[in-house]
Design goal:
Oligomer: single chain
Shape: globular
Strand order of the largest sheet: 1-2-3
Number of helices: 2
CATH superfamily: NAD(P)-binding Rossmann-like Domain
Number of strands: 3
Largest sheet: 3 strands, parallel
Number of domains: 1
CATH class: Alpha Beta
Structural class: alpha/beta
C-alpha cells in the first residue's frame, strides 16, 4: 500500500523531512527523490527498494538527502 507520492510531497512545507525506515513499500521512492531534487522536501533514507544499494544509485546523487546503511542490528548495543 503506497501512502506517499509526489503530490503528497508537493503540499508539504519546504523545510519538511521525510524519514524512510519501512520496508513496506509505503513510499513511492522515485517520487521522493524527485521531490528532494526539486527542493519540495528533504529525505532521510534508511531503507531502499533494492538492497544492497547499487553504487551508481540515483539516491547517492540526489540533493537534500541523507542516506543510511540500515545496519543498526550490527551495533554492539543492539546485539
Amino acid at each position: 500500500m503506497v501512502l506517499t507520492n509526489y503530490n503528497y510531497y508537493s503540499v508539504m512545507q519546504r523545510d519538511s523531512v521525510v524519514v524512510v525506515t519501512s520496508r513496506a513499500g509505503i513510499v513511492t521512492f522515485d517520487d521522493l527523490l524527485d521531490a528532494a531534487e526539486s527542493r519540495q522536501t528533504r529525505a532521510a533514507i534508511d531503507v531502499f527498494p533494492e538492497e544492497p544499494v547499487p553504487a551508481n544509485h540515483r539516491a547517492g546523487r540526489t540533493p537534500n538527502t541523507i542516506l543510511s546503511a540500515h545496519r543498526a542490528s550490527n551495533v554492539p548495543e543492539i546485539v
